[in-house]
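Task: fold both queries, return tokens.
Query 1:
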Amino acid sequence: MPEARTPADIEADIVSRRRELAATLDEIAVRVHPSTIAGDAKAKAFGAVDRTVGRAYVAANRAVADVRSQFVDEEGAPRLERLIPAGLVAVAVVGGLLALSVRRRRR
């Protein structure tokens, strides 16, 4: 048989429940406060930007390493068989752009 509760026990339970409810309501008030919502949104946005920037950095680093490996061997010596043609192409492109620029200025 369950023990009979005294009025004092019931009153103590009511006081305890009121405190718990007050704490819960305070927590809800903090969570739904506009500054809390704005702060959470800012944190999520900054987190998304940080992840995106991190991924972009890794991708750029990988691309630079891939390009570098095309022009430098494992010991760090330049691969002239690839550098000379690339340099010639770069000179040709710059020369062509300069020629077009001069041609446009003359018109």
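Query 1 returned. Query 2:
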Amino acid sequence: MDWIFRTAEELRIALRAGDVSSVELTDEAIARIERHDAAINAICEPDFDRARAAARDADRARARGEDRPLLGIPVTVKESYDIAGLPTTWGMPQHRDHLPAEDAVQVSRLRAAGAVILGKTNVPLGLQDVQSFNEIHGTTNNPWDHGRTSGGSSGGSAAALASGFGALSIGSDLAGSLRTPAHFCGVYAHKPTLALAPIRGMVPPLTPALPTDHDLAVVGPMARSARDLALLLDVMAGPDPLTFGVAHALTLPPARHERLGDFRVLVLDEHPFIPTGSAVRAGVNRVVDALVDGGARVERHSPLLPDLAEAALLYTQLLFSGAVARFPVEADEQLRSQAAALSADDRSLNAARLRGMVLSHRDWIEANNRRELHRHGWRRLFTEFDAVLCPITPTPAFPHDHHPDPRQRRLDIDGVAYPYFDQLVWAGVATMPGLPATAIPAGRSPEGLPVGVQLIGPAFEDRTPLRLAELLEERIGGFQPPR
């Protein structure tokens, strides 16, 4: 039997019933990678010998009566996570030989849950792009169209899942890095509530793997079904044992509703800074039709919605203030000169990026205070709604564009060119206030490319958008293998 595109939940059932062994699943996954990954380039650091050993251990453990959440299931891991014995480079050529001594906390959790790690998946340089390419490992192609990007920065993981290279993967998200690749490749991803899952050990090379807090950034699950997202999130979530885990245990509240007809959903398909392309708008409307047909209450406007323009500017400043932390002094001085030349009434995204790059600590605190006001606004909105449905980016996957200066790249939206980085504003809707967001497939574009949308939920109520994703998967269908 071909197990390649089965969900992790289906594989769990089959493993428990003795219908298949972990060794068989692992060998099948490895064989598929060896046959097909030359064209996709998703797996940048294979770890097949240890994977086969782990699969044998999993089968022996099951024979002894053990049953862990992911026991014997083949998975992949984003390159940016430390795995002892494999390079962690973040795509940086100067670190191509960096070998961490310890596993990241999330890798340790995968192993403890019984997962079989096949290897690492490709990323962009420094994780700072909407595409996945670097000098060390080359370009990851979209499984649906090799001339297009798989997304970034978890693009290797999304491409691996869509190609049948393992049942699950773990990635990270700062500017849509889980959600955008899922949208581009037709799979599922979940950006957890900020700080829900510890990030220790997913750090740039030579950076100590400490249990520090990260502004905006999260780690999270990727899968080929909504139920699998929930399964993997349960493995990943919970405080770091070196800090809050000393005293705290995590208990996520259940989903607000179990029936589609009980959900209250606010729909957004227009953003003040960038238009929504026709293919993505059609995907949003396809999900809206399913919600309405299922009896959900759907609204397209609410006075409780925090201002999207102000939110986008705030998100952009916070995002780029962190992106330049290691810039050389001379570059910082040049940026400060450019920012000083901006008009005081320039409220463009480009100005926000530049101001963010030179943000003082005092200004950052003020920006953070404004963020708290937005967070409170979202709390109020979620007293009236259970989820917000909106795009992830304005377009399906776009053609590879490796211009060395991303500021010179342009995104084509229905024949009109827009600045490349402007597409990040939809990701920021959930990221800036730290809300959970689940990316789900929502059909195909006229060219046959996957289109996804995101379901944003209340903070620390991750099970609510995940449950809504499950119910929608039943109505509109989910992952389909590339043709």
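Both queries returned. Flag for query 2: The mean pLDDT is 97.
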